């Protein structure tokens, strides 16, 4: 899966490809690599925070259904009935949007699309991105949490 040295569609796409995939290509590529690694760290942090009870809460609707039998933060039931704070979800969305855009840019400028699509890491990226967005758009969390907080301008109630 060695793409280095392949001639792409245009000098611009070659430059973008090398910048995104080869940190030793240029100073810009090194900066891009640092930014990418920052997003990996933020996504990892978001994953950890989603499971931390102090970054979760029980919605009013769930409280009304559980009348008097509210689980405590250390209880497994708390994780089942609680949702993460919208700020943690927003961090997750920002990170996954970044990874999705980066993947499609790499796909657009790849020197050899057939080699790109056969790469095991890119196949994993496709499955991971697809599963993340399917889970996001089909989860009850979206309707429960963002209905109250309206973080996105495109959300309508």
UniProtKB/TrEMBL annotation:
Is Cell membrane set as a keyword in this record?
no
Record localization:
Membrane
Q: What is its main location?
A: membrane
SUPFAM superfamilies under this entry?
Answer: Voltage-gated potassium channels
- Which sequence ranges are marked TM in the entry? 31-49, 85-109, 121-142
Give the record's membrane topology. Multi-pass membrane protein
Gene Ontology cellular component list: voltage-gated potassium channel complex
Question: What PANTHER family has UniProt attached to this entry?
Answer: POTASSIUM VOLTAGE-GATED CHANNEL PROTEIN SHAW, VOLTAGE-GATED POTASSIUM CHANNEL
Task: Supply the name of the protein.
Answer: Uncharacterized protein
Question: Could you tell me which species this protein originates from?
Answer: Candidula unifasciata
Q: What is the lineage of its organism?
A: Eukaryota, Metazoa, Spiralia, Lophotrochozoa, Mollusca
């Amino acid at each position: 899966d060695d793409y280095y040295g392949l001639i792409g569609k245009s000098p611009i796409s070659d430059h973008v490809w090398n910048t995104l995939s080869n940190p030793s290509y240029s100073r810009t590529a090194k900066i891009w690599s640092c930014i990418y690694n920052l997003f990996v760290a933020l996504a990892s942090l978001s994953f950890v925070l989603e499971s931390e009870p102090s970054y979760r809460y029980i919605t009013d609707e769930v409280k009304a259904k559980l009348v008097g039998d509210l689980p405590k933060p250390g209880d497994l039931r708390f994780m089942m009935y609680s949702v993460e704070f919208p700020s943690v979800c927003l961090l997750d969305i920002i990170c996954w949007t970044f990874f999705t855009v980066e993947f499609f840019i790499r796909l657009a400028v790849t020197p050899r699309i057939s080699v790109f699509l056969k790469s095991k890491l890119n196949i994993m990226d496709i499955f991971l991105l697809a599963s993340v967005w399917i889970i996001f758009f089909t989860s009850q969390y979206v309707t429960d949490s963002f209905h109250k907080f309206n973080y996105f301008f495109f959300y309508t109630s």
